[in-house]
């Protein structure tokens, strides 16, 4: 088995009231911004939606160092400010579907940039 420095993450975004469209817009731009900054791998982003409208995103950072670098990157910080305005971040375990042995979500391929 090949070792890798890459880090897979799963994140849940619950839209703030009236912010579903704004959240969709920022999620759509998330992958392209992180790729342009060289912070994520070429693995496709996966975005799906829970029954309550929470968006779940799965993607791969290049490394733990890339994650740390994102916290000092102006383009990423600007994008994260938009996320904060549009949603609250949730631990994935609080998304109701995650309690199921096989968690089912609606694919949101329209949000993958």
Task: Describe the model.
The protein has about 110 residues and is of the alpha+beta class. The protein has one domain: Alpha-Beta Plaits (2-Layer Sandwich), CATH 3.30.70.100. It is about 35% helix and about 25% strand. The protein has 3 helices and 5 strands; from the N terminus they run βαββααββ. A 5-stranded antiparallel sheet has the order 4-1-3-2-5. The N and C termini lie far apart (about 30 Å).
Shape-level CATH architecture: 2-Layer Sandwich
The CATH class is identified as Alpha Beta
Please give the number of β-strands. 5
Q: What's the tally of helices? A: 3
Name the strands of the widest sheet in spatial order.
4-1-3-2-5
Chain-averaged pLDDT: 96
- CATH overall fold name: Alpha-Beta Plaits
Structural class: alpha+beta
Task: Classify the oligomer.
Answer: single chain
The helicity comes to: 25-40%
The SSE string, one letter per element, is EHEEHHEE
Integer count of domains: 1
Strand content: 15-25%
Q: What spatial form do the alpha-carbon principal axes imply?
A: globular
Unreliable spans: none
Distance from first to last alpha carbon: 30 Å
Rg measurement, Å: 14 Å
């Amino acid at each position: 088995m090949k070792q890798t420095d890459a880090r897979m993450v799963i994140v849940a975004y619950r839209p703030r009231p009236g912010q579903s469209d704004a959240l969709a817009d920022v999620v759509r731009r998330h992958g392209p911004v992180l790729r342009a900054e060289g912070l994520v791998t070429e693995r496709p982003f996966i975005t799906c939606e829970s029954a309550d409208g929470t968006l779940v995103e799965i993607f791969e950072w290049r490394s733990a160092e890339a994650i740390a670098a994102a916290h000092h990157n102006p383009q990423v910080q600007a994008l994260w400010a938009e996320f904060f305005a549009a949603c609250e971040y949730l631990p994935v375990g609080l998304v109701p579907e995650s309690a199921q042995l096989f968690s089912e979500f609606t694919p949101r391929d329209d949000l993958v940039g």
